[in-house]
User: What shape does this take?
Amino acid sequence: MAGNRTFSMIKPHAVADNHVGGILKLIEEGGFRIVALKKLHLTGAQAGKFYEVHSERPFYGELCEMMSEGPIIAFILEKENAVADFRKLIGATDPAEAEAGTVRSIYAKSKAENAVHGSDSDENAALESAFFFSALERF
Ligand code: GDP
Assistant: This one.
C-alpha cells in the first residue's frame, strides 16, 4: 500500500529568487498538508551525504555544489499516495519536459536548478525525512 508522506526541499536558487511562497501555495493547493518545515544552509558534505545514492553519477559534484550554495527549505508533506502524487505535481526533472502547470514548469531554471526535490519512494521519503527532522518536529 502506498504511504501517505513524502519529503521535499525548495532548492537554493528558488529560495534566493523569493519563490518559497509561490511554491508552497501550489503544494498546499495540490492537497498536501505540511507536517514539518525548516530553513537551513547545507554544507557541501551534508549535501554529499543526502545525495549519496547519486555519488556515481557524473553530475554528483555539481549537484552537491548547487545544493549547498545557499539556504534551502526542507519539509515533510502528507497526502494519500504522497510520493507519486507529489512527483506528478512537481513535474519531470528537466523543466523542458515538465507538464504545464507543474512546479518545475513554472519555477525551474534548468535540469540541475529544477526548483524542488521530491522523494522517489516511500522508503527514501522516510530516510530523507529522518535526515532533517526528529519525531518532535513533526505535527
Ligand atoms: P529527480 O528525482 O527528478 O530530482 O531527478 P534525479 O533523481 O534524476 O536527479 C537528482 C537531481 O540531480 C535533480 O533534481 C537535479 O537537480 C540534478 N540533476 C539531474 N540530472 C542532472 C544533470 O544532467 N546535470 C546536473 N548538473 N544536475 C542534474
